[in-house]
């Protein structure tokens, strides 16, 4: 297997290089720990008596997924036994990435035997590989010879891990390898990790444990660039990802500092003609607020030039017709518009807009990766002063968007983190600000390439819906009575 790695080529910026000519010393050492067990599994090495279970922790960027692909590529091509292999990933996206990594490694080494690639499986002369995702249905009853667990520190639950690790005892010599980032103390992966660490200290240990902490080892990762990126991240998240340190979930409770929030208060500009505008809506008819944001990107900053927040009640909901009117008015005014909504809200509105040629994005921001991505984008924009909003943005009473941002809390999740609000507080304005910012920054090209919707004639005065603007003073008099703001 060492000769295989000496001849293996990898793609570096379009140039094919021999892996061991460019590999760091720590990569060679990592391989030296694993090669004997993999050769034994392949029927190439006799008399191996070391552990068949490995736990390896490495920081982000340390070629974990690519190394899984290289080891499995060897088994698929050269194992003397027909092996059943499993690679288990955090979700379907990561599973697809792992499978793509394997195909890429194979494509740059045309001297290797041919393999047959399917969506989530690979067949070769040495066996078959199946790629599974932890967010899919639990996989019980599988028989396999080797299983690699990729990044289990970000798996939402342990169902797939338990199903596979329990099945590993069905065969006498089953190899398991965990390659992961550090995670969060107290999580299920932390509990497993601590058991493994203890087992690795026993005589004739069933597990080998290695955890890298400290300076990032990869020579291809610029220390200056890492330092720049760390400034935009939560300090504890940076330690987890780049220093390999398992972090306490109670660290960094505040999502943004007051100085960072106030540093983005300014005078956002209205969009020039033809600019791509994102309209983000979070509809809360009663208890939660309805928040509506409009933003555009000038190439350097997000201009959050409109942000409104409306509060309904059990007695008087925020009418959906008022939200529709708000959207329609801005769609007519700006033309090149993307409307971002929750996929479970305003379904009829989204369908109506799409029927009129308006680009609609259904973004599931309240859960999983979407939640993390949104929080990461918002924090990066604010910390780097890549967003500007007015001092009165989203004002309800004496509270504005800036006030809400200062009160946001950080909540640790298995997939990373998200922002949340304390009891009695809100985060609706922050959500739409983040959704709009994400769309104009990350989705700008795709949105601009959309065909503009057909022009619509403005309605004559007095015809159609009027925009509702809440007037809480007029809504209730001293005795709680008064004319409804929703009345015509």
Provide keyphrases for this structure.
alpha/beta; Rossmann fold; Nucleotidyltransferase, domain 5; 2 domains; six-stranded mixed beta sheet; 20% strand; elongated
Q: Your description of this structure?
A:
- Helix 4 packs across helix 5 and helix 13 (368-383) crosses helix 15 (428-442).
- With 488 residues, the protein is an alpha/beta fold.
- The chain has 2 domains: 2-236, 3-Layer(aba) Sandwich (Rossmann fold); 258-453, Nucleotidyltransferase, domain 5 (2-Layer Sandwich), CATH 3.30.420.240.
- The longest helix has 17 residues, at 25-41.
- An 8-stranded mixed β-sheet has the order 5-6-7-4-8-9-3-10, with helices on both faces.
- The radius of gyration is 27 Å and the shape is elongated.
- 36% of the residues lie in helices and 20% in strands.
Oligomer: single chain
Radius of gyration based on Cα positions = 27 Å
Contiguous helical run count: 17
CATH topology of the largest domain: Rossmann fold
End-to-end Cα distance, whole Å, is: 79 Å
Structural class: alpha/beta
Spans of at least 5 consecutive residues whose pLDDT stays below 50 are 444-488
CATH superfamily of the largest domain: P-loop containing nucleotide triphosphate hydrolases
Q: Can you give the mean pLDDT?
A: 84
Number of spatially distinct domains: 2
The helicity comes to 25-40%
From the 3D coordinates, which CATH architecture of the largest domain would you assign?
3-Layer(aba) Sandwich
Q: Tell me about the largest β-sheet.
A: 8 strands, mixed
Number of strands: 18
Strand order of the largest sheet: 5-6-7-4-8-9-3-10
């Amino acid at each position: 297997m060492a000769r295989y790695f000496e001849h293996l080529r990898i793609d570096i910026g379009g140039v094919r290089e021999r892996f061991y000519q460019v590999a760091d010393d720590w990569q060679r050492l990592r391989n030296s720990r694993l090669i004997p067990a993999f050769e034994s599994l392949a029927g190439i090495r006799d008399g191996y008596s070391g552990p068949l279970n490995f736990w390896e922790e490495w920081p982000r960027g340390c070629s974990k997924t690519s190394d899984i692909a290289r080891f499995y590529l060897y088994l698929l091509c050269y194992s003397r036994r027909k092996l059943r292999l499993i690679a288990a990933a955090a979700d379907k996206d990561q599973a697809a990435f792992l499978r793509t990594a394997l195909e890429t490694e194979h494509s740059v080494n045309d001297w290797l035997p041919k393999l047959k690639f399917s969506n989530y499986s690979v067949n070769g002369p040495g066996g078959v590989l199946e790629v599974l995702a932890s967010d899919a249905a639990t996989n019980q009853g599988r028989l396999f010879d080797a299983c690699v667990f990729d990044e289990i520190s970000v798996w939402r639950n342990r169902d797939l891990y338990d199903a596979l690790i329990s099945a590993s005892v069905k065969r006498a010599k089953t190899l398991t390898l965990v390659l992961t980032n550090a995670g969060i103390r107290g999580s299920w992966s932390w509990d497993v990790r601590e058991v493994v660490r203890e087992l690795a200290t026993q005589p004739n240990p069933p597990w080998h444990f290695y955890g890298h902490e400290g300076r990032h080892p990869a020579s291809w990762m610029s220390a200056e660039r890492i330092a720049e990126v760390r400034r935009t991240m939560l300090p504890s998240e940076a330690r987890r990802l780049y220093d390999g340190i398992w972090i306490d979930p109670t660290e960094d409770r505040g999502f943004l500092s007051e100085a960072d929030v106030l540093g983005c208060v300014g005078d956002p500009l209205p969009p020039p003609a033809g600019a791509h505008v994102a309209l983000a809506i979070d509809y809360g008819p009663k208890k939660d607020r309805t928040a509506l944001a409009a933003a555009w990107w000038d190439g350097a900053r997000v201009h959050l030039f409109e942000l409104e927040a409306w509060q309904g009640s059990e007695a008087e909901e925020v009418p959906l017709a008022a939200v529709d009117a708000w959207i329609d008015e801005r769609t007519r005014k700006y033309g090149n518009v993307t409307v971002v909504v929750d996929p479970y809200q305003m379904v009829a509105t989204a369908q109506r807009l799409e029927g009129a040629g308006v680009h609609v994005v259904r973004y599931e921001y309240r859960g999983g990766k979407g939640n993390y991505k949104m929080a990461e984008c918002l924090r990066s924009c604010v910390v780097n002063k890549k967003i500007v909003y007015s001092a009165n943005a989203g004002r309800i009473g004496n509270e504005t968007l800036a006030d809400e941002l200062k009160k946001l809390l950080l909540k640790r999740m298995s997939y990373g983190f998200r922002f949340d609000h304390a009891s009695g507080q809100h985060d609706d304005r922050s959500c739409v600000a983040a959704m709009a910012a994400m769309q104009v920054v990350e989705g700008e090209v795709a949105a601009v390439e959309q065909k503009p919707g057909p022009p619509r004639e403005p309605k004559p005065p007095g015809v159609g819906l009027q925009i509702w603007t809440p007037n809480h003073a007029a809504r209730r008099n001293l005795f709680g009575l008064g004319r409804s703001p929703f009345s015509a």
